Amino acid sequence: MLASSGAARRAEHPGARRRGDVVFASLARAAGITIVVALAGVALFLTLEGVPAVTAPAERIGADNIVVYVWPLLFGTLLAATIAIAVAAPLSIALALVISHYAPRRVARPIGYLVDLLAAVPSVVYGLWGIEFFGPRLAPAYEWLGEHLSWLPFFAGPATSTGRTILTAALVLAIMALPIITAICREIFAQTPTLHQEAALALGATRWEMIRMTVFPYGRSGIISAIMLGLGRALGETMAVAMVLSATGVVTFNLISSVNPSTIAANIALSFPEASGLKVNVLIFSGLVLFLITFVVNFLGRWIAARGRVEGGR
């Protein structure tokens, strides 16, 4: 009786909103504004503190100018993140498909739990594992690549005996990004309409054909968003790269040598404790560059995902 009277009142006043809806909308709006303000504050701080580095003398920068200083770091950041995503993205999508569509439930659930636990491992632990276990065991593989594929610029060598290379750091980043991409893709694949999948199977499609025709088109925008989140993790990772990478601050595509480019985040982490004066401004300016790169990458990811949703709606 009370429910029907309440429904009748809402029907008589369609513009009226329940108190809970108003509170939730206000909280959501406040959260959005807070995020925008915080982002603007970070950008303003980095800009104001980084501008003095543009006119800083060469002896305080450690290079001829700020561009010469930042470019090798930016190159190393993009190179490590690109390799990491190139490795992590296909593995993550395949693992998500195994969990959502191929493995039995009694097997898929423990695998999903293990993947989720990987995301909770601290960066320092990944760094210790990379420098003490993963890197030394990759050294023989690097020597083989240097002996047989030295005609490629990526494996020109000479191969390092410690395994502390940009390739090792990128593979560690790939392992760190894998649980993020996998978890998101798994949830997206599980939300594919069952009727679409059953219709494809009923028409004679194999399981892979069903996935290719129904699951991937439905989750395209979500897959792109997941990859971009993983890329953001790879771009901003600090401690694991700083611990694994033996950096010399050069620009090179040689992935197995002891001469490696550094990354912006790792360079800030290693150099900031001893920095003072204009050197701090130089490091903050490099942080501003990383902030802009991350912002552009996430903006492109959102744009591609939104475009995919619009095309899928058509």
From TrEMBL:
SUPFAM superfamilies per UniProt: MetI-like
PROSITE patterns the UniProt entry points to: ABC_TM1
GO molecular function, one term: phosphate transmembrane transporter activity
Keywords from the UniProt entry: Cell membrane, Membrane, Phosphate transport, Transmembrane, Transmembrane helix, Transport
One annotated GO biological process: phosphate ion transport
Transmembrane domains' residue ranges: 21-46, 66-99, 111-131, 166-185, 280-300
Domain ABC transmembrane type-1 residue range list: 74-301
Superkingdom field: Bacteria
Protein's membrane topology: Multi-pass membrane protein
Gene3D superfamilies registered for this protein in UniProt: MetI-like
Gene Ontology cellular-component annotations: plasma membrane
Protein location: Cell membrane
Function: Part of the binding-protein-dependent transport system for phosphate; probably responsible for the translocation of the substrate across the membrane.
PANTHER family: PHOSPHATE TRANSPORT SYSTEM PERMEASE PROTEIN PST (PTHR30425), PHOSPHATE TRANSPORT SYSTEM PERMEASE PROTEIN PSTC (PTHR30425:SF1)
Family of this protein: Belongs to the binding-protein-dependent transport system permease family. CysTW subfamily.
Protein name: Phosphate transport system permease protein
Lineage, broadest ranks: Bacteria, Bacillati, Actinomycetota, Actinomycetes, Propionibacteriales
